[in-house]
């Protein structure tokens, strides 16, 4: 099989029933987003971590399952290796979002190897930003030498630990301005696209309805405003990425520009050790 066929997912089996279920789930989430966003544009990242590439292809390329809806573009992954492997199996028209905790030594290879990496949502140290910068710079140089179309700057979000929990990644609220400045001033191949938080589960449960007020989302928004002021940019230039399956409506109500939804679209995830990169066709 040619590399091209593999990269288009042409050889991949899509179960029509599974594709239908996923499309329905995605549509329902899209409708829920629209009903609370008052006409504002909110990006939906379909979080596909630990789910097979077939599921992603079914949503990205619905023509392969005889659906009339346009393909979904934004997919989120938590593990650098899984994202890289999936990117090699799937069409380059996908916009990949790395949303999981980053290891510094994985940053450069990730940014260098995945040309359609659209955003890294979880930058929480200057070292990681520098490593992503090196990787994207190397990618840009390689593509330029192949005289292909080239590549734009890699979008990054600075992850903020708004809840102060030790188990959560992210910079402290008080360190966000400094890290954002670092990205803007020291990383020529990165674009500071905004801020991201996960937040505490308890706060999310208390404020999960569309009118709920979650302190973590309040904190991210006010940190964004401070960052914008410190950098001398308009607030609107810095997006807020907040909201997951359990609280995306509340997050949008509090100004989120991007929600990351996994379970509500793809169902429960397998344990990491049981996850399959690709689902093979069932024997009949
Ligand atoms: C897994 C994950 C999500 C999606 O969570 P669900 O509850 O399945 O919607 C969102 N954001 C981050 C950072 C995640 O790791």
Automatic annotation (TrEMBL):
Entry-annotated residues carrying N6-(pyridoxal phosphate)lysine: 49
Q: Which UniProt keywords apply?
A: Pyridoxal phosphate
The record ties this protein, via Pfam families, to:
Ala_racemase_N
Domain (Alanine racemase N-terminal) spans: 31-270
Query: Mind telling me which InterPro entries this protein's record contains?
Result: Ala_racemase_N (IPR001608), PLP-binding_barrel (IPR029066), PyrdxlP_homeostasis (IPR011078)
Q: Which GO terms describe its molecular function?
A: pyridoxal phosphate binding
Q: Which NCBIfam families match?
A: YggS family pyridoxal phosphate-dependent enzyme
Any idea what job this protein has?
Pyridoxal 5'-phosphate (PLP)-binding protein, which may be involved in intracellular homeostatic regulation of pyridoxal 5'-phosphate (PLP), the active form of vitamin B6.
Which protein family is named in the record?
A: Belongs to the pyridoxal phosphate-binding protein YggS/PROSC family.
> What name does UniProt use for this protein?
Pyridoxal phosphate homeostasis protein
> What is the native source organism of this protein?
Extremus antarcticus
């Amino acid at each position: 099989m040619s590399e091209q066929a593999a990269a288009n997912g042409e050889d991949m089996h899509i179960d029509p029933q599974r594709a239908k279920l996923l499309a329905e789930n995605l549509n329902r989430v899209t409708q829920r987003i629209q009903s609370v966003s008052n006409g504002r544009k909110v990006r939906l990242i379909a979080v596909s971590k630990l789910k097979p590439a077939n599921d992603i292809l079914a949503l990205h390329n619905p023509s392969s399952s005889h659906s009339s809806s346009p393909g979904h573009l934004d997919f989120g992954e938590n593990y650098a290796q899984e994202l890289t492997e999936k990117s090699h199996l799937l069409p380059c028209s996908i916009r990949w979002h790395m949303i999981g905790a980053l290891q510094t030594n994985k940053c450069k290879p990730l940014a260098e190897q995945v040309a359609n990496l659209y955003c890294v949502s979880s930058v929480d140290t200057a070292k990681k930003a520098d490593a992503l910068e090196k990787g994207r710079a190397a990618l840009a140089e390689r593509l330029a030498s192949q005289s292909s179309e080239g590549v734009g700057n890699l979008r990054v979000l600075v992850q903020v630990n708004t809840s102060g929990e030790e188990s959560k990644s992210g910079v402290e609220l008080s360190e966000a301005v400094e890290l954002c400045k670092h990205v803007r001033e020291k990383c020529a191949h990165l674009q500071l696209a905004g801020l991201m938080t996960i937040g505490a589960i308890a706060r999310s449960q208390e404020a999960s309805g569309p009118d709920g007020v979650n302190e973590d989302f309040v904190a991210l928004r006010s940190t964004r405003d401070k960052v914008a002021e410190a950098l001398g940019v308009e607030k609107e230039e810095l997006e807020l990425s907040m909201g997951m399956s359990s609280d995306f409506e509340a997050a949008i109500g509090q100004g989120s520009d991007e929600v990351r939804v996994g379970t509500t679209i793809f169902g429960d995830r397998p344990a990491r050790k049981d996850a399959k990169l690709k689902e093979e066709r069932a024997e009949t």
